[in-house]
Write a structure and sequence with these properties.
Elements lengths: L12 E6 L1 H5 L9 H15 L4 E6 L7 H6 L4 H25 L4 E5 L8 E2 L2 H9 L3 E5 L9 H11 L4 E6 L4 E2 L11 E2 L1 E3 H6 L7 H9 L4 E5 L5 H6 L6 E4 L1
Parallel strand pairs: 1-2, 1-6, 2-5, 3-4, 3-5, 6-10, 9-11
Antiparallel strand pairs: 7-8, 10-11
Length: 244
């Protein structure tokens, strides 16, 4: 026993939104980078010691995006369903990485595929969380024309989450794309209404509106900076906070 005190989380339950691009990493060129997955699993294992319940919604953009298929002549609805299936692939990859670290998990999907995951049932998901399991939601909302950001806001509302944490490759929300515009400035804090009116692309308007209606704060932070997830859960000022 080291005797080191484990910091407790400010939140009881959070919804962590991961974009598919996060799983691809920055350098590997792989759709799903095993090193990124392993690092993510270690972070989740570490923060579980903070007495926190964690649910995850993952995107599928590292594999397929419906609107990209549409831009190339594919039917939008078909493309969106393909994108939903991509999120399930990512959810299973996350489950595998977490369980290799000894973290108990369940995958639930909005589109039923019982051979690989449970169907989404709110009461069952809540029970899994209460038992200390990490619940990973795949399949988006189960409907075309809705993003996984909206799915994250929806599941955060259904799970009575205290916060929605959006893990990205940048350290918050900026006035413009900081990669393309070095003069872009980071917001430390925004209201939901400001985020909607400024049409900030970090999440879509439907996701912001759902969080606003249910008073769920959103924290946008750099997933790749070591220790950031722990700091966010401890209540430190990291990234950009979107709230009332």
């Amino acid at each position: 026993m080291s005797g080191k005190t484990v910091q407790k989380s400010k939140f009881k339950r959070v919804l962590l939104k991961l974009s598919g691009e996060v799983l691809a990493g920055k350098k590997s060129g792989l759709s799903i980078d095993p090193e990124v997955l392993a690092g993510f699993a270690r972070q989740i294992k570490a923060v579980k010691r903070m007495e926190i319940e964690i649910a995850i919604v993952v995107g599928g953009g590292n594999i397929f995006r419906g609107h990209v298929g549409e831009s190339r002549g594919m039917d939008r609805t078909t493309g969106d369903y393909m994108g939903m299936l991509a999120t399930v692939i990512n959810a299973l990859a996350i489950q595998d990485a977490l369980e290799k670290e000894g973290v108990d998990t369940r995958v639930q999907t909005a589109i039923e595929m019982r051979q690989v995951a449970e169907p989404f049932i709110r009461r069952r998901a809540m029970r899994h969380l209460a038992k200390g399991r990490v619940v990973i939601f795949g399949g988006g909302t189960g409907n075309p024309y809705f993003s996984t950001d909206t799915a994250a806001a929806l599941r955060a509302s259904e799970m009575d989450a205290d916060a929605l944490l959006k893990a990205t490759k940048v350290d918050g929300v900026y006035t413009a794309d900081p990669v393309k515009n070095p003069a872009a400035k980071r917001y430390a804090r925004l209201s939901y209404q400001e985020a909607i009116e400024k049409q900030l692309k970090v999440m879509d308007a439907a996701a912001f509106a759902l969080c606003m209606e249910n008073s769920i704060p959103i924290v946008v932070f750099d997933f790749f900076k070591e220790g950031n997830l722990q700091k966010v859960l401890a209540g430190e000022t990291i990234g950009t906070l979107v709230s009332e």
